[in-house]
Amino acid sequence: MAVRVIVGAQWGDEGKGKIVDYLSERVDIVARYQGGANAGHTVEIGDKKHVLHLIPSGIFHERVTCVIGNGVVIDPVALLDEIRLLESQGISLKGRLKISHNAHLIMPYHKLLDSLFELGTTAIGTTGRGIGPAYYDKAARVGIRIVDLLDHAGLEATLRRNIADKNQIIRKVYDHDELDVESIIETYQTFDALIDEYITDTSYYLNNAIRDGKNILCEGAQGALLDIDHGTYPFVTSSSPVSGGATIGLGIPPTAIDSVLGVMKAYTTRVGLGPFPTELDDDAGAYLRSTGHEFGSTTGRPRRCGWFDAVAMRYSIMINGISSCAMMKLDVLGGLDEIKVCVAYERDGRAVKHFPLDVRTLDAVTPVYETLPGWKDDITRATSPADLPANALAYIARLSEIVGVPMRCISVGPNRRQTLFLEEDAAW
Questions:
Q1: Are 223 and 12 in contact (CB under 8 A)?
Q2: What pLDDT sits at residue 427?
Q3: In whole angstroms, what is the distance from residue 394 CA to residue 413 CA?
């Protein structure tokens, strides 16, 4: 038995979907513990590309059960679209998808308010999928959970109250047309019948699975540096992508977790606003974006690109308890004469000892770089670490040394088979 957490160790978009898919071959359950349809996990199998937003990446393995935990906020429209898409591709979800009855629902007013807020002067670069407003209502204790769908009369009363309150804001603050109460009530009263077969008390299910010795992967969305408590606030997501979020978002004890694998890119990217010390606004940044196809799988927005930030990574390793890493997109660096790595920060000529969470401080730091030799070889066809050029191996070794944990596996392309293990572990 093993319970392992897969966490994004940077600002999201690290390639968690591919790693979860790859490792799912050796587990029984993959459980998603936070976030919503703002996450986009891309998996390439053969010549097909699959983008998932809610259902865990392990769904492509027939013997794997996938769980959406109570910490996830669920957009019914996105969920049903995803279920239909997978079924149209011949992927059966019957008995293999379990959704927590305590998961909160994203309502139409959440998505509208999210979009209206982003039009204002205090925008933070959200996806506009209603994630933040849904978590806001959850914390304010006016949210609607899946279990609430079972009581049609109670659901209608809650919806009428909530929509009346939201329409006040929509009309008076944003001067926008109000939402239609009746159509929303009708839509959500029929949603229960469409997903009833998947609804489970997932906390009991997972704890029973742990007791029975099952192997479980806990899958986070976004990245640790976007954590609501431990990220670059306020330019963060509304939940806890850090490894500790798995216990809250799934209802399992922290003592059940055996290890944490951090997924990181061989460079750094960020979507949306917020400080980014190693961001590149030059030809090197454009090269990383174009070669790495750095455009959001959920929004299509171009990602901001920069050199690898070891200061941020060491912080992420500390707060997540990361014991080893998966390095993604090493192949993107091929073709560069030299590659820079941020090994420290300075501010006004003085060393900054730790990764600062105050965004004003982080915005003011200057990265201190170490320059490493690049390589020209195309490594996308490598089938073992021995196939990698010496400078690529040296880059891997140096990053491992700087951040203080081993690199367990390396991705040299988007496809499932383009994954090289440096450290084999029978338990995986």
A1: yes
A2: 45
A3: 19
Per annotation, catalytic residue among 28, 41, 110, 137: 41
Nearest Cα to Cα of residue 92 among 63, 122, 113, 121: 63
> Is 41 a known active-site residue?
yes
Closest by alpha carbon to 311, among 362, 235, 263, 371? 362
List, in sequence order, the alpha helices (H) in 25-102: 76-88
Does residue 77 sit in helix, strand or coil?
helix
Tokens of residue 165, six digits: 């309150």
Torsion angle, CA of 20/21/22/24, rounded to 10 degrees?
80
Which of these, 184, 395, 338, 368, lies nearest to 278 by C-alpha position? 368
Cβ atoms 46, 80 nearer than 8 A: no
Per the CB < 8 A criterion, the answer to whether 40 and 4 are in contact is no
The model's pLDDT over 400-420, given as tens digits with 9 standing for 90+, comes to 999 999 999 999 999 888 999
The secondary structure of 381-420 as a DSSP string is T--SGGGS-HHHHHHHHHHHHHHTS-EEEEE-SSBTT-EE
**For 268-307, what is each residue's pLDDT tens digit?**
999 989 999 999 999 999 999 999 999 876 667 899 999 9
DSSP character at residue 119:
T
Six-digit token string for 306: 């920069």
Q: Are strands 338-347 and 366-373 parallel, antiparallel or unpaired?
A: antiparallel
What is the sign of the dihedral through the CA atoms of 367, 370, 374 and 380? Answer: negative
Amino acid (1-letter code) at residue 75: D
What are φ and ψ of residue 153, in 5° steps? -65, -45
Size of the chain, expressed as the number of residues it contains: 428
Residue 104 annotated to the active site: no
Q: Where are the beta strands (DSSP E) in 119-191?
A: none
Over residues 322-342, mean pLDDT: 97
User: DSSP for 267-308?
Assistant: SEEE-SSS--TTB--SHHHHHHHHHTT-B-TTT-PBPEEE-E
Contacts of 57 (CB under 8 A, 6+ apart): 16, 17, 18, 20, 21, 24, 30, 41, 43, 219
Residue 180, pLDDT score: 87
Residue-averaged pLDDT of the chain: 91
pTM of the model: 0.90
Residue 15: how many other CB atoms lie within 10 Å: 20
Task: Report yes or no: 386 and 304 within 8 Å, Cβ to Cβ.
Answer: no
Q: What is the pLDDT of residue 194?
A: 87
The residue annotated as part of the active site, out of 13, 21, 148, 192, is 13
Which residue in the block uniquely carries the two structure tokens 């998603």? 32
Residue 373, preceding bond cis, omega within 30 degrees?
Answer: no
- pLDDT at position 426, please? 42
